[in-house]
Amino acid sequence: MLTPFDDYPIHPSADPIAHPATGDPNHYDRYWFNGQDKGGEFFLAAAMGHYPVRGVVDAAFSVVHDGVEHSLFASGRMPLDRRTEVGPIRVDVIEPMRVLRLTADRTAQGIGADLVFRARTIAIEEPRQRIVTDDGILAMDHTRLTQWGTWEGTIWIDGHAIEVDPATTVATRDRSWGVRGVGKPVETNRPARVPQVFWLWAPLHFDDCCTHMALHEQSDGSRWLQTGLILPLLDGETAPTYGGPRPEEMTGLRYEIEWEPGRREMRSAVLSFVEPSGRTHRIEMDKLFTFRMRGIGYSHPHWSHGSSHGELEIGRESIGLDDFDPLDPTCLHLQNVCRVRLDGRPGVGVLEQIALGPHTPTGLTGVRDGYRPPA
Fold this sequence. Notes:
CATH architecture: Beta Barrel
Number of helices: 1
Distance between the termini: 63 Å
Number of strands: 22
Largest sheet: 14 strands, antiparallel
Radius of gyration: 20 Å
Oligomer: single chain
CATH class: Mainly Beta
CATH topology: AttH-like fold
Strand content: over 45%
Number of domains: 1
């Protein structure tokens, strides 16, 4: 099956571009964005995913303002040409790995945006995330690029306009593709497993650099993925955003989390890592508020990624931050919006967390039991 992309020299095999490498229904290809005002006035997030085996394209745009998480959702039939739009939400790649545009038509549900992302750093390739179960089933296998930038433009919430200034609004984006659990689970005859995920992801912005830390741990604290980086800012608007040397990996990645009692989320945290030169860096993180990732479809009870909604469905929800049940399964994937300090220098960013199942080093027990301080 030919599509317009076959006119470009981008083929990784003899197949047309529209042919996915696997018939796994969990095959996906996704855009993801976040952004925050340095003064804490607002936070935004967005996602768009294509699921070719399921025939679905979906997207969401969410903004936190005045203590409320407002979200616009859209899901529909995926076109053969993989257009990066569904309903009122659209992503345009203006200049790959440098400038992207995110728009949401406010006439659809009262929530809208016209925003331009501009890169501050190169795009980095994170370590590949691959999980094979103990009975030999490939459960996850995906690649992700991550990049730091700024936003400029306008956000609308029920007629109220928020002007987004690139001097005060930072952005992080990623692109990921491969196989990851999405949509309705495939029915199997295998024994049920107790879910376990411990994931920390911290892309941070400072005036003179950006930093990154990501890690996955097993329930005993053994680490199966980690990366830590310090990224210089681009040297001008024409500086290369890809193809150069990768920043040196940090070692000795550590975290200390002060947990919210009765929840699976941070109150504050300290991250640290060591440069190849031997210099240790310390990052202190103080939470402003928590964004629930269900606002852009992650584990949402109706708008979960890859779920089928026919030809097109559009919807909205607005929920007060204090009205979420922090232990509801749809609320465990979250981003803590933070003010941060790198060796005392101020910055902003998020600590994304998924803590599902037991995790001995932090004292978490059960599948989603809240944190209990030691007696």
